[in-house]
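Quick bug: BNR repeat-like domain-containing protein output formatted oddly.
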Amino acid sequence: MIQNHAAFLHECEDGVINCAWFGGSLEGKSDIAIRASVFLPGGGEWGAVATLSHDPDHSEQNPVLSAAPDGRLLLLHTSQPAGNQDEWRIRMAKVNRDGTKLSAEAGKYLDLSRGCFIRAPLQVLGDARWLLPIFRCVQRPSQKWTGSQNVAAIGGSKGYGNIWAYEEISGCVGSVHMCPVALDGSLAAFYRRRQADHVHRSESVDGGLIWTARAATDVPNNNSSVAAIRLASGEIAMICTL
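Here's what came back:
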């Protein structure tokens, strides 16, 4: 495709690596669709590219692949009428694999507010609570959307992805692409900043219901995404651009 963006990697238990991204003529146009490819252990090269979304009237972006507790591989992505940022909705579908070929079922939109966007992985906690990091696009009246008023939120589900609740994080204007990391008995979250100052961090000790006030880390951020994971050593590794 002319544009290929927002690649997301997911490693399965059998060592297979799936990569999903969106591609088309231009981000936001209606021909933008979710693409994916498979890398088998010892395969040496990526498999053929498959299209996992098929809505010709929507721009479908920012794919996230996650394993559900029941073994399903889930694709979550945003979908919007071309050019309408505040109309974003989140769609979830089951992904099937046959060798190196991926396909996605029809799926459905999550019952969350319009304007919600995703980028970071789904978190499944021990109490069967699902946490989907999102941010909501807020457009000032009579003004063009710029992203400066976006807010971070959590899509929470205890219904195995069937029922969702929108839980906005207070005091987070301009903090987006929330990336939670599970620690020992708590969660830490890292944020991209529209203000282009520093990566910010907050914490939760109650499973993501209440978060502490965001605080700037010493890592600069130029309004680009961050990704963080916990290593086997217990340390947190973060990737970002400076």
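Actually, after a second look the formatting is fine. The two ends are 28 Å apart (CA to CA). Closing.
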